[in-house]
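REQUEST ID: PR-0412
SUBMITTED BY: lab tech R.K.
PRIORITY: routine
TASK: structure prediction, single protein chain
INPUT:
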Amino acid sequence: MATRRITAGVRDRIRELVDVLYPFLPLTARSTNTTTFKTIFAESNLDLEGEVKRRALQAGWESVIRYHPRLPHSLIRKIVPAAIAYRRYKRAPLRQEEINRLIECLDALGIQMGPELRAIEIDESVPEIQIPPKELYERLQSHPLAPEIAGEPAELFRNGHFNESVRKAAERFEVRVQELSGLTDIGKDLMAKALRLDNPRVRLNSLSTDNERGIQEGYQFLTMGMIRAIRNIFSHGDEEQRAPEEAYEMLLFLNWLFRQLPRKQ
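STATUS: complete
OUTPUT:
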């Protein structure tokens, strides 16, 4: 038996609710493990008929409002957490603005859930893409690598020793600059002396134009920063294990640094 009459005004407010909820979840999914609007409604023994999403949601919510006055709270409590997970998976996180609009639509229908929904923490940051280490290693192997990276550092990465692979590559870079410059200095001082703009021990180009001088000076600063931010940090055995994606990016940066150095001085 109907407990509420669906007037034209109520139907319009339901339509506004559907507009807000529409991007929260898919109507259906091929995978039986995916939470959808249909699976959530089915848990309450309700069927969202048809395959046209907006039409199915409109009819479904009209039925809920008409016959099941206590059910909206239960449905929303299932839909919102599922939407947070789904949208994060899709790398389009649910936004606080959408939750606020949902609260307004529910209020207009006499469904008071404002305090409860506002208490939910919404992370709007876009999650990083997680790539399996095996795929990253294959990418690394297919990249034109400097010999110093292609050997032990790449092998360490393949075996899951991500910090150690970066440490080894950074140390090899330091040794290579020592060899080219003939200096016995280490660390940041080595980079500052070997690659300085005026009379450098390691010259990247002829230094005859402003651009070439800029490249030499910029490269010097990059290598000094690399020593401080990578080589020194990863030389500490207690450094927290980095994600494979981050180690992969650092190896490619070090690879670029290697490829700018002259093979012979």
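NOTES: The chain has two domains: 8-118, 133-260.
REVIEWED BY: pending
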